[in-house]
Write a structure and sequence with these properties.
This protein has 142 residues and is mainly α. The chain has a single domain, classed as Ferritin, core subunit, four-helix bundle (Ferritin, Up-down Bundle), CATH 1.20.1260. Helix content is 77%, strand content 0%.
Length: 142
């Protein structure tokens, strides 16, 4: 991989890192504001998703550094100003996961000539798809 492509990949992964860091904050925030008799399993769901985003952030930060880049610490978390229902939170999280998978899929062209990086991105895509599947099942009513 040439230096120009390496810089492009590091920049793309920094974009993904920012998204994952924002996801951690959003998932934790959602876990804090859940109320009601079914709170515990929902809190655990959101915190598990925060941990998964944290793991992705670690992988991305390490890979960025290995590529010679500097991992970002920028966090963009657009937190709602008003209280939401659990269903609204889950729908928002589904949108967030769909954005993430679209980002990762767009990176496949960039890393297509590097088997290890291609596998790295595809592994995260698989995990993101599992999140989408989980959220879709949680939102299904029939």
């Amino acid at each position: 991989m040439n230096d120009s492509t390496r810089r492009q990949v590091a920049a793309a992964f920094n974009e993904a890192l920012e998204h994952e860091l924002g996801s951690i904050v959003r998932y934790l925030h959602d876990s804090f504001v859940v109320y009601g008799p079914n709170r515990d399993p929902i809190v655990q769901h959101f915190r598990a998703k925060a941990r998964e985003s944290f793991e992705h952030a670690i992988l991305l930060g390490e890979k960025i550094a290995a590529l010679g880049g500097v991992p970002t610490a920028k966090v963009e978390a657009d937190l709602p100003a008003k209280r939401r229902t659990v269903e609204q939170m889950l729908k928002s999280d589904l949108e967030n996961e769909n954005e993430a998978i679209a980002k990762y899929q767009s990176y496949l062209e960039l890393v297509k000539d590097d088997v290890a990086l291609d596998f790295f991105v595809r592994r995260i895509i698989i995990e993101e798809q599992q999140h989408i599947d989980d959220l879709t099942k949680l939102l299904r009513t029939e």
